[in-house]
Write a structure and sequence with these properties.
By secondary structure, this protein is an all-alpha fold. The chain has one domain. The protein is 42% helix and 0% strand. The protein is built from 3 helices and no strands. It is globular. It starts with a helix and ends with a helix.
Length: 55
């Protein structure tokens, strides 16, 4: 599924919808957006990069 999303994103814009919009992993006042987690994974970025942990 992830690889298929990557393929589609190469040719067109992909929109990920989520009920929450919190993309800040250090903000514990609201749930973290699942769409943000998927986006980070698709881009090959590590969550730890955004929260000060080891890369």
């Amino acid at each position: 599924m992830v690889e298929r999303l990557r393929e589609v994103a190469r040719g067109q814009e992909v929109v990920l919808l989520d009920y929450t919009t919190n993309g800040d992993v250090s903000d514990l006042t609201t749930p973290l957006s699942h769409a943000t987690l998927v986006r980070l994974h698709l881009l090959g970025e590590r969550l730890s990069h955004y929260c000060g942990g080891p890369s």
